[in-house]
Known about the structure:
The chain has 123 residues and is mostly beta strands. It is built from 1 helix and 10 strands; from the N terminus they run E-E-E-E-E-E-E-E-E-H-E. A 6-stranded mixed β-sheet has the order 2-10-9-4-5-6. A 4-stranded antiparallel β-sheet has the order 1-3-8-7, with no helix packed on it. Strand 4 and strand 5 form a beta hairpin. The model has no long low-confidence stretch (mean pLDDT 93).
Amino acid sequence: xxxxxxxxxxxxxxxxxxxxxxxxxxxxxxxxxxxxxxxxxxxxxxxxxxxxxxxxxxxxxxxxxxxxxxxxxxxxxxxxxxxxxxxxxxxxxxxxxxxxxxxxxxxxxxxxxxxxxxxxxxx
Length: 123
């Protein structure tokens, strides 16, 4: 199973933007669909966005539609986050999988995700 590493988080003011990156350690992510998810302390995991292996199909949670864009090239999966809100503050992680359908199942057990990257949005 491929192991992914997230980067690109930081501190930004409300309304600002960040671009997160997700790359494979030692292997390529190009053979996998991928999901970005977030989990705040004491809250359930929330899928934010997902992208198919070829990049032609995407999925977004309602809370981020129109603000976030998931994309990919051969080696990196990106999450462009615009119009950030304080409620977007948490750790963001990415994980590989066989399909968007699988990755967006509520009880799907992710594997191969990294330490995550912290996003903090100040008001």
